[in-house]
């Protein structure tokens, strides 16, 4: 198994070229095809405009969204032009209302093996960046790789992987969907933070998962850590630093808010501070 269909979605021309270039190198390493979706977002909320301004405001925001989509498409195309000729790729642009992002992203992403996206938090990030991540994870149900802002275009390596394990369904899903990268890694450290004393794996936390992965040819080992810091994400971040890891695999957790899936606290905290790529699934 490999990631034969890789998708990246850009909402900002400033980051689209870098993310597309990184996704291109990854797709080529997988002998896959890279699709780019350049997204222009119409943030109009006509319910708050004054009477008579609707048509004018709609026209202005529509034109701005179209211009944004063209700028992102141009950035992706420029990155493709700088890639080796062996890269198989395509780029398309689309304009959507802010409230329709989930439907559009889910329709595009559901047929991808992996979606590569920029970090949704930080400077020059907007509500649509988080909405794109959530739609890919919760609506399209595909694995998503989040790239930190400081990552160079050629640094999606996955040689030293930390697999965050808490015995949950989401963590198991992420493990299975990350298997191609786990098999290619030099070392996979299954990291269990503060396992429950009365859980199903109380006698051997992570042991059954390690056995499963080893049978798939994964060079895996288990590391059980105490929760010596306020957040599990803080403990994982320290483990990343101590092991010089270059990829984190974890389950994506969310909760319902007004019928919309939103990233849960543990997932959000990890993404906010992540300095290496994070591969997530729900």
What can be said about this structure in brief?
With 282 residues, the chain is α/β, with parallel strands linked by helices.
Structure description:
- The protein is built from 9 helices and 12 strands.
- It is globular and about 65 Å long.
- The chain has 2 domains: 143 residues, HUPs (Rossmann fold, 3-Layer(aba) Sandwich), CATH 3.40.50; 122 residues, HUPs (Rossmann fold).
- The chain has 282 residues and is of the alpha/beta class.
- Strands 3-2-1-4-5-12-9-6-7-8 form a 10-stranded mixed β-sheet, with helices on both faces. A two-stranded antiparallel ribbon has the order 10-11.
List the helices and strands and how they pair.
Layout: E1 5-10, H1 13-29, E2 33-42, H2 54-82, E3 88-97, H3 101-109, E4 114-118, H4 127-139, E5 144-147, E6 160-164, H5 169-177, H6 179-184, E7 187-193, H7 207-215, E8 220-225, H8 232-243, E9 247-251, E10 254-257, E11 260-263, H9 265-273, E12 278-281
Parallel strand pairs: 1-2, 1-4, 2-3, 4-5, 6-7, 6-9, 7-8, 9-12
Antiparallel strand pairs: 5-12, 10-11
| Shape estimate | globular
Secondary-structure element string: EHEHEHEHEEHHEHEHEEEHE
Number of domains: 2
User: Helix share of residues?
Assistant: 40-55%
Q: Give the mean pLDDT.
A: 91
| CA gyration radius, whole angstroms | 20 Å
Largest sheet: 10 strands, mixed
- Helix and strand content put the structural class at alpha/beta
Give the number of DSSP strands. Answer: 12
CATH architecture of the largest domain: 3-Layer(aba) Sandwich
* CATH level-4 homologous superfamily of the largest domain: HUPs
Strand portion:
15-25%
- How many individual helices? 9
- What is the CATH class designation of the largest domain? Alpha Beta
